[in-house]
Specification:
Layout (H helix, E strand, L loop, with lengths): L2 H17 L4 H19 L3 H7 L15 H10 L1 H7 L2 E6 L1 H5 L3 H11 L2 E8 L3 H7 L9 H8 L4 E7 L3 H9 L12 H5 L8 E3 L3 H11 L13 H4 L4
Antiparallel strand pairs: 1-3, 1-4, 2-3
Helix pairs in contact: 1-4, 1-5, 2-4, 8-9
The structure holds 2'-deoxyadenosine-5'-diphosphate and magnesium ion.
């Protein structure tokens, strides 16, 4: 199943439910009751369902009438699959950012963008753990000092989720050297030198996957539907 389908389907379900927001609890609980049956009855019929999603007539109105509620329930259940497919990135506020009292400032920037926090903890990493985190830099002259620094105090480790969060997270963070970071970025606004650039962010999908599993156990990663998602995402 393509991620495009999941995204379209999930968006459609969210849109459908938000249009019924007056009766939201009723709809959702009814939807949940119908879920198992809906899953069974729609399993094996996905190609037919996909054909409703003709991109040439893309519209949130493609599901109508009696099909609507079970389809929405089916798609809501699939939000778990959707959530599993949603991009995640590892973000850490380094000891300098924590000590300078910048935790709330930094979290605020990711939150107000619309990204979703799915894991967070304050840890003092050991030097060898820091070495694992920065393993790709082990040949650089600053590697030892960098690992000493990362393990020198509390680090706020987080996982953020959202469409494009890896790339856009890096944009929010700004260039590695704060002297070159644009104003408006975290490093541009809040840091001065490369050795104290306050924040780490994964630089690609593979790094994100590896860093998330280095810093977090699977059970520390939450899966939930954020209340704001139906407003942060949508197609017209
Ligand atoms: P980024 O943190 O933007 O992904 P990176 O992965 O190249 O940058 O380097 C990791 C960290 O190492 C960086 O945040 C700060 C430190 N660092 C990078 N280049 C450095 C340099 N030339 N001198 C000192 N520290 C440096
Ligand atoms: Mg990096």
């Amino acid at each position: 199943m393509s991620s495009h389908f999941y995204k379209s389907a999930s968006r459609a379900a969210r849109s459908l439910l938000s249009s019924a927001s007056k009766h939201r609890h009723h709809v959702v609980s009814e939807g949940r009751t119908a879920m198992a049956a809906a899953t069974v009855s729609y399993k094996g019929k996905l190609p037919a369902l996909v054909s409703f999603c003709d991109s040439s007539t893309t519209s949130n109105k493609w599901i109508t009438g009696a099909l609507a509620l079970p389809a929405a329930a089916y798609m809501l259940q699939d939000q778990e699959a959707y959530a599993a497919q949603m991009e995640r990135t590892f973000i850490a506020i380094k000891p300098d950012g924590v000590q300078r009292g910048l935790i709330s400032e930094i979290i605020h920037r990711f939150e107000r963008k619309g990204f979703k926090l799915v894991a967070i903890k304050l840890v003092v990493p050991s030097k060898s753990f820091a070495g694992k985190h920065y393993h790709d830099l082990k040949d650089r002259p600053f590697y030892n000092g960098l690992c000493n620094f990362l393990s020198s105090g509390p680090v706020l480790a987080m996982v953020w989720e959202g469409e494009g969060v890896i790339t856009y997270g890096r944009k929010l963070i700004g260039a590695t050297d704060p002297q070159k970071s644009e104003p408006g970025t975290i490093r541009g606004d809040l840091a001065i030198v490369v050795g104290r650039n306050i924040i780490h962010g994964s630089d690609g999908p593979e790094t994100a996957k590896n860093e998330i599993s280095l810093w977090f156990k699977p059970e520390e990663l939450t899966n939930y539907t954020s209340n704001q998602e139906k407003w942060a995402y949508g197609v017209n």
